[in-house]
Every structure is written in C-alpha cells, then in structure tokens.
Description:
- GO terms for molecular function: oxidoreductase activity.
- The protein contains seven helices and 20 strands.
- By secondary structure, it is of the alpha+beta class.
- It has two domains: 2-43 and 127-197 and 291-352, FAD/NAD(P)-binding domain (3-Layer(bba) Sandwich), CATH 3.50.50; 78-120 and 199-288, 2-Layer Sandwich (D-Amino Acid Oxidase, Chain A, domain 2), CATH 3.30.9.10.
- Strands 5, 6, 7, 13, 14, 15, 16, 17 and 18 form a nine-stranded mixed β-sheet that branches.
- A hairpin with a 4-residue loop joins strand 11 and strand 12.
- It is elongated, with a radius of gyration of 21 Å.
Amino acid sequence: MDSFDIIIVGGGIAGANLGAELAAHRRVLIVEAERHCGMHATGRSAAFWLGSYGGPAVAPLTLASRRFLAPFLRQRGALHIARDVSRLPEVDGGILLGRSALEDRVPGTRPDWACALFEESCADIDVAALHADCLARFRQWGGTVRTDASLVAAERQGNGWKIRLSDGGEVEAGVVVNAAGAWADAVAIGCGVRAIGIQPKRRTMVQLRVGQTGLKDLPLVIDAAESFYFKGEGDNIVWLSPHDEIDSDPCDAAPEEIDVAVAIHRFEQAVDWPIEAVERRWAGLRSFSRDRVPVYGFDPSADGFFWCAGQGGFGIQTAPAAAKLAASLLLGEALLEIVGHIDPELFSPGRFSR
C-alpha cells in the first residue's frame, strides 16, 4: 500500500495550488475523480481578477494573490453600470463615469443606464495556464497525481488515515485535505467527518455572436445590481452570464434553457447589439460555505482532516495566497510574510461548531 504524508482530494485550482506549496516539504498525493484535473469549476470559469469582488474577508487574499497571478493576467478593466448613481458600489480608486463617458466605453448601451464606475485593475485570468503551472510545479517537487480515482471512504487509524479509492486502490496518509469543491461535504462524510454545509450553486455562461464589432478589449460590464455581466472575447463575440446562483447537488453541471433565456433577456436590456447566434452555453458549480467565506484549516473534531473548500466564485483570483495560508496552517508553521497580515481564524472550520 502506497503511503504519503498528505493526500489532497481534488485536483482543481485549490488542490493544485496547495499541492504546489506542499510538495517540496512533504510526500503528497493528489487524487482526482475525473480523467483530468480541473474539469468542473476550474475548467469552466470565465475567471477575472477583480479586487472589489468577494467581500471584506476575501479581499486580502485577492490582493495578496495578484503578484503571483501577474504572468497569467490580461488587463481589461471593469465597468459597474447602474440606472442611478446611488446603486454603484464603493470601490477604492474607482472612477465615476456619467452617461456620455459610459456610451464612449460601451457604444450601444441602452439610454436608461445613466452612469458607471470604472475599476481599472480588473484583469482576465488565463486559468488553464495557471492550473497547468501549478500541477507542473507540484510534479517537479515530486508530487504524485492520480486521476480516475475518487475517495470512497477513509478511516482514521493510529496517527493517519487508510483511504479506499474508486479505482480499487488503497493508500495511507497522515493528513487528508478536502479540496473537493462541490463534493466537499460528501468527502467529509466519506471520512466520517461532519459536513459543514458547503453548497454548490450553478452559474450559467453563454457565448454570443453579436452585430457589433470591436469588442475584444471591451471592459467587463457588470450590472451594479448583480443581475448580469458580460465581456468581449472576440471582435464580435461576448461571454455573458445572468449572474445566477442556483442551488445544485454536486454534479456535472449543464445549463438550463430558462437560465440561458434570462441571460439573453438581461443582455438585450443593457445594449442594443443584435444577437446573431448563441454559439456556446455551459455551466459550472461554485461552492459556498454558509457564511460565503472560504474554509481553510483543520477540522476541530477530526484529527488530520483539513478543509480547503467553499471558495465560491473567487477561488481562482485568491488561489495563490489561499494556498500559502493553508500550507502554513497545515505544516504548523508561521504564516509567510505575504499573508502574515491575514487572520486565519476568519477561515477556520471551527466557526461552524461554535
């Protein structure tokens, strides 16, 4: 039976980043249920780095991650648009734009959209390249990846875990890291650990070809009321979401026709660009804890069980700093300077048992 110091369940962006931080210090195995790592939330994200996204607990992780994400970023900028200036968010360094300036940035904006706030720092994230880089660094440090192998059950024995996998194999590890995204609660239950209420929510994306050109460098356009967002992906191509969060079981998510229709309706209320074709549609699951703050830390009632879950829609933009924070907690070391100002208690799974 193969033996490791740490087994990470889930090879998406959270597990891969954490693995890259740990592999130089411990023998680490990543197990992934699918044929390839990152096939669900990570592989379906229209990810962008947006400093104002996620709330006050998440923002320090987002800001600390930017320097590590720099090679994978493409500057875009974001426009929060509103029908009334009172609906615009408060964003440090945001630039208030009136109707005329909004029309200059997004020609064809419907007349009732009166104003916008421009957030210059917003950037696209090359998720595929970032994820591949994490896995490459993990392997370079001696980490092992095992695909087509989900955790079936695990039992605490002595100072470690005996783990049974779906491919028929068994492994031993001192620590189980639960980085299973939408399946995080199911993994906990499989280990005999109490679920903490990680809820997957479906997010729909649509690729449209429209009768408007010059869109490739369009800013990310976000309704201040959070009912849609879209961004240019080609000269006359946009990616659009209705900003939905629909409760779901853990699954291979697929878009519902009603959600696609809602997205298109909201888009047509925002701009007058004719829709020529719906070229693609897809959906992914974003998983939230009960208080919408990620969970990083050892379970207070289960020795050697570490949570790395509940990253919601901000898991990719926070992944580098979150992995450094989680690695320090897991190894029992002082926080690295880059995350030393962040209070790890904010993310402790123990907050759900108080």
